[in-house]
Design goal:
The protein is an all-alpha fold. The protein has one domain (about 1-195). It has helices spanning about 1-15, 20-25, 40-50, 50-75, 85-100, 115-125, 130-140, 145-165, 170-185, 185-195. α2 (about 20-25) packs antiparallel against α4 (about 50-75), α6 (about 115-125) runs parallel beside α8 (about 145-165) and α8 packs antiparallel against α9.
């Protein structure tokens, strides 16, 4: 079992290392990790390059999480129904780690929310009617993407516990997603407390392009 877990994490990590926002930035002749929040994720793509770049980044980061999770669940380890859902959770977490800490970019990536969202949906699509409204409404009310992001990751372990009662191992892995998100958003949390967090729609000025 341990070997399978390691394989799934590494498999997910490889997919996660595809940094969509970085490539979108390079197409636009910038490294978006040098601007705004210094992240290669969707929110920073929106602030640095606008809505089109943000949508492309979001879609890319969602897909790179969905594909490996589904492959593990329905192709690679489908013959092990007793723990294939757990392995798919580990795969998704590997994607998040690859997104956040891509080795080929010196471990400087994004904050993992889109990748987490993709992993959540691939793991259990029934979370969409719950998680998506929480994300959208919280942002609409507060104007802070970070608030919506953190609330969604808090929802995940609760959802896993409700849908998979008694599966402590799965619950712990789901909590790992939440912990990772809060670690990556530590600076956002500080700015929220200080009242200096950037609201959605605020753009970052780019003086020169590479």
């Amino acid at each position: 079992m341990l070997v399978k877990i390691i394989i799934c994490i590494l498999f997910g990590y490889l997919f996660g290392c595809f940094s969509t926002g970085f490539f979108i930035g390079k197409i636009n002749k910038i490294d978006i990790r040098e601007y705004g929040s210094k992240s290669s994720g969707t929110t920073n793509a929106l602030r640095t390059l606008g809505a089109k770049a943000a949508i492309l980044t979001l879609v890319g980061d969602l897909i790179k999480a969905v594909i490996p999770v589904l492959l593990v669940r329905f192709v690679i380890f489908h013959d092990f129904p007793e723990y294939v859902k757990l392995l798919s959770l580990y795969t998704g977490f590997g994607v998040v780690m690859g997104h956040n800490y891509p080795a080929w970019l010196r471990f400087k990536g994004g904050k993992g929310i889109a990748a987490t969202g993709g992993a959540m949906v691939a793991f259990d699509p029934w979370i969409i009617p719950v998680g998506l409204p929480i994300f959208v409404i919280s942002i609409a009310i507060t104007k802070y993407v970070s608030v919506g992001s953190l609330l969604v990751t808090l929802t995940f372990p609760i959802w896993v516990a409700v849908r998979n009662p008694g599966e402590i191992h799965m619950l712990l892995v789901a909590f790992a997603y939440t912990i990772s998100a809060f670690i990556k958003h530590s600076s956002n949390i500080k700015r929220l407390i200080n009242g200096t967090e950037n609201k959605i729609g605020q753009r970052v000025k780019i003086d020169n392009k590479e």
